[in-house]
Amino acid sequence: MPKSPDPQEGPDPQDLWRAATRRLTEAGIDGARLDARLLLEAAFDWKPHALTLGTPAVSAEGLARLEGFIVRRLAHEPVSRILGLRDFWSLPFRISPATLDPRPDSETLVQAVLDRTERAAPLRLLDLGTGSGCLLIALLAERPQAWGVGLDRAPAAAALAQSNAASLGVGGRAAFAAGDWTEALTQMPTGRFDVILSNPPYIPLGDRAMLAADVRDYDPALALFGGVDGLDPYRRFAVDLQAFLVPGGLLALEIGWDQGAAVQALLQQAGWCAVTCLPDLGGRDRVIVAYSPQIEPFCDAPR
């Protein structure tokens, strides 16, 4: 006969998974089954996929942690925020309330820079609004001869980015500082850069109410909103950043899905060259690349 369950053994892990999934589903949480598994693994410190590979141990401490995690997810806090960790470019980044939660769409910006630089080149990179440092660190991981500087207006974000760089093996080639973008650059003896990149705040202030709760309530407003029309950072970049790039240097900017034409026009009017809009994997405008002017008549040469 099958063995009767021992009442001292505690809840069955599969039952916990089903119950957590049901609670999240009833609250309208998309991806409830996956979220429940990730929260269980974290609460009980199980290895990934332990639920499908065996019968992992259940502890009273883990049950208390799990309940806290579920309550937070029911309030639409993202799993990455609950765990303090987000994978980006196949690298694990710690995140905090001071940083944006990196999205897969931003990998389009990393790829755009990689496509336009040489692996062995001793590149000098600048990341404005670095947040967790995910963009700069991903590029340094792919460009072993490069070094970079990341700036963020939030000191806590700059400190966390430095910690991420160290844990991901590029700390010796990265420096992070707090400051107001171009104003901070004037105080840094770094010279000019080969590449400047940024995922700036670009959401119009009037769109706040339309944002999903997991963005509106948990991403820092400093990293989300770019003025009345969302274009304030690009206006500054268009005018200010040529002074910090070498001639022919690369500028790569993430944009909102409907901002391609407007940002292209701002850069072209300011004299940037070969301004191009690139789509993300969903086919939406996502990245603008441009080059600082070189000696004429080569400014408009295709790249």
Automatic annotation (TrEMBL):
Keyword set includes Transmembrane: no
Keywords for this protein: Methyltransferase, S-adenosyl-L-methionine, Transferase
Pfam families documented for this protein: Methyltransf_31 (PF13847), PrmC_N (PF17827)
Residues that coordinate or bind substrate: 199-202
GO molecular function: nucleic acid binding; peptide chain release factor N(5)-glutamine methyltransferase activity
UniProt entry tagged with the keyword S-adenosyl-L-methionine: yes
EC number(s) from the headed UniProt entry: 2.1.1.297
InterPro entries per UniProt: DNA_methylase_N6_adenine_CS, HemK-like, Methyltranfer_dom, N5-glutamine_MTase, PrmC_N, RF_methyltr_PrmC, SAM-dependent_MTases_sf
Domain Methyltransferase: 123-200
EC category: transferase
GO BP, sorted A to Z: methylation
Superkingdom: Bacteria
Residue stretches making up the Release factor glutamine methyltransferase N-terminal domain: 15-84
Residue positions binding S-adenosyl-L-methionine: 129-133, 152, 181, 199
Catalytic function, reaction form: L-glutaminyl-[peptide chain release factor] + S-adenosyl-L-methionine = N(5)-methyl-L-glutaminyl-[peptide chain release factor] + S-adenosyl-L-homocysteine + H(+)
Function: Methylates the class 1 translation termination release factors RF1/PrfA and RF2/PrfB on the glutamine residue of the universally conserved GGQ motif.
Family: Belongs to the protein N5-glutamine methyltransferase family. PrmC subfamily.
PANTHER family xrefs: HEMK METHYLTRANSFERASE, MTRF1L RELEASE FACTOR GLUTAMINE METHYLTRANSFERASE
HAMAP family membership: RF_methyltr_PrmC
Name of the featured protein: Release factor glutamine methyltransferase
Species of provenance: Elstera litoralis
